[in-house]
Structure formats: structure tokens, C-alpha cells
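Re: the multi-chain job from yesterday

Posting the exact lines I submitted so nobody has to dig through the queue logs.
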Amino acid sequence: MVNRDDADQADNWERQVKKGWLELAILASLWGERLYGLEILRRLEDATDLVVAEGTVYPILSRLKAEGLVETKWVEGDAGHPRKYYWLTPAGRSRAAAMARYATGFLGSINRIIAPLLGKEKK
Amino acid sequence: MTQAERLQRRIDAYLAELRRCLGELPPEEVHDILQEIRGHILERTEASGELTEERLVEILKALGRPEEIAPLYQVDSVVAKGRVSVSPRLVLRAIHRWSVVSGWGLVLFVLGIVGYSTGFSLMLSAIAKVISPDRVGAWVGGGHFVIGTVLDPGARDVLGWWLVPVGLAAGALIVFGTSRLLRWTLRFARVTRPTERPVTP
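And the result, C-alpha cells for all chains:
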């Protein structure tokens, strides 16, 4: 039995974890590509369940821009409305690569430490 | 009112509310944000084939409430700009934004005000010395030390013309140091959404 408080706490924990990974996922989706906001969102939604509220992705993009990690340009296309395209700057590429390297090591250590928990559940 | 008009009105209302919540951001930034979010809504509605009111409500709900999204922009962009800026105004603005949600931010904001005003006053005194050499100086007398103008006729100007280079250099150093310190502390600024509990770094 899981009581309501525990469920809420687990939910909150999940949200915080997702929030932390979202920035890396956004940078990763732009690796080698120019995408506009909704395309980035679709990538993330197809590949992950990191996006809790769609509206949170846009402020993160705006912060990445302010930090000089992405560059942007409005493009008038055939969509009938302009689209804001994003791509990685050299600083963004090296930050993304560094984050990815850290993430692999980090996930490996987490996997090792939680392995027994998962083993127990399988029984 | 036709169905299309009603839906359009709903989108407009959402964007108007978002604009209201974005409040103090620079106008061109607000314009960009609204244009991007409008594009998102339009494209989502176009992709959903026949658009019904229920579908639009879903799209807006997935986006999030304006009052939840708007603070993310303010905090994110203001703090992010302060982190990389050399402008005392932008750095202080970022710290100020941080001070709204954190005691540490408040302490640093006060520190920033003191640091910047000390630095700028020193530089101003150096410039004032050039303009009015007899009245401006680093005065010692009557147990006081004052940089600026004093009315006490017994006070002695200990620096003389040295106030110009010393004031400029020390002032610039203090301003620069304050910026560096504040920018460094901004790396620890965690400003979270009002609906969420703060994360311990």
C-alpha cells in the first residue's frame, strides 16, 4: 500500500529529476541540427518523458541563449507565422559534450548502487 | 460568434494573460516570447486536424498556465544575463531577482549596493579632485577620515593629487571585485517555480 503523501513525494522527486536532465536533453536534441522550439519539444516527447509542462522548455531555451550556449534566428517560412530556430554555439557544443560525459559516468554509478533494489523487485 | 472566433479569442486571452505576467521584462523580449508561444499554439492546433474547443483547452493545458510559465522567463533570463554580464546594472538586477526568493540573495544584494557605491564614490572623488582640487581630498582631522569635501578647516589632505590615480584605481578595483564576487555567487542562485519546492543544491 502506498499512501497519498508517499505518492506525492515520489511524484515531486520525479519532477525534480526530470528538470535536471531537461537541459542536457535540449542541448542533445540540437546536436548537429537547427530546430525550432516545437521541433525540439517533439524530439524530447518522442524520445523521453522528460517534459512535464511544454511551456517550461521555452524559458530554458531563452536562458541557454542568454548564456551564449545557443544562437537563434527568426525564420519566416511557409508556416504562416515566423519560427524561432535554435542551434548550438561552439560554447554550447563543448558544454553539451561535457555534460554528456558527466552523465554517462553518473548514470553508471547510480546503476551500480541501485542494482540490488531492482534485483529484489524481480523476485 | 462563430466557433473559429471563439477559439481565437481563447488564444488571445491566453497570450494577453502571459503578457501581463511577463510584466517587467524588456518589451522586445516580451514580443519574442509571445511570438514564439503563439507559434507553438498555432502549430499545435493546425496539427490536430479539426480543432475543437476541447482540443484547444488541452493544448493550452499542456503548455502550462501563464502565471507559471512567465516567472520562469523572468528569473531565467535575468539571472542568466547577470551571470555573464560585466554591467553592474545587470548584475545587480539579477541579484535583486534572486533576493526575492532567498535570504542569501538579499544579503548579497545589500553587499552589492555597498560595494558598487563605494567603488563609484571613490572614482567620482578622483574626478572631483581634478575639478575642484582645493575642496576635494582625502581629509584627516578631528579623528575623522573623509574622502570628498570637508568643512573642517583644520583637516589635512593626506593624498593630495594622489587621490586621482588612487581613487580611480581603487574604485575600479572595488567595482570589478564586486561584480566578480556577485557573478560568482549567481552560479548558486537556484530560483524555482513558485509551484515547486526548492531543490537543495
